[in-house]
Amino acid sequence: MNLSNVKHLEIPLCSQTTGSTILLMILKEAPNLSSLNIFNCSIDILKNNKEICQYTNNMIKKLQFCVYSQTNPCQKPNDVNSIHKVFSNVEQMTCHKTQSDSCLFLLNNLSKLSTLTIHFYQSINDSSFSKVKEELSKLKNIFFYEEILRDIKHVKLMAFGFWVSRDDINT
């Protein structure tokens, strides 16, 4: 099968054995692949395979974590560090509910990251992203946007995002 025209890949499941082997074969045969949609558990599989890391670091520019998967790789410092190791050249990323420390780490360690979108559920009285916005607003050249994706019974699915002018993001 010719995979030379494949630009986007969605990996629907996490499998310790077949997942990494198949992904490596796809990466080798799909030189134009630049966008990846994965479940969060895939990070653990990918970070332990140096050959896959070489391909993902060189090829993947757009990364999206499946919003509905259980754990969030943008929550824990070790997981955020794994993202940095597996996708060091990512330019656009979408994940779900994260902390300001993780956002700052990603901004400071993913030198090509220019757009980060975070999906989260928010009730009327919830201001969970105030701290993230407050911390990020201290940086120069950060621009925010918010979008309501769905509003059902006083709970909103929100998209909070920002893009960065990479000239200077220091405070």
CA-atom Rg in angstroms: 17 Å
**H and E order:** EHEHHEHEHEHEE
Kindly state the number of beta strands: 7
- Low-pLDDT windows of residues: none
Number of domains: 1
* Spatial gap, N to C terminus: 50 Å
Strand order of the largest sheet: 1-2-3-4-5-7-6
What percent of residues adopt helix (DSSP H or I)? 25-40%
Strand content: 25-35%
DSSP helix count?
6
What labels describe this entry?
171 residues, alpha/beta, 32% helix, globular
Structural summary, described in words:
Helix 5 links the parallel strand 4 and strand 5. The N and C termini lie far apart (50 Å). The protein is α/β, with parallel strands linked by helices and 171 residues long. The chain is globular, with a radius of gyration of 17 Å. Helix 1 crosses helix 3 and helix 4 runs parallel beside helix 5. The chain has one domain. A seven-stranded mixed β-sheet has the order 1-2-3-4-5-7-6, with no helix packed on it. The mean pLDDT is 77. It contains six helices and seven strands.
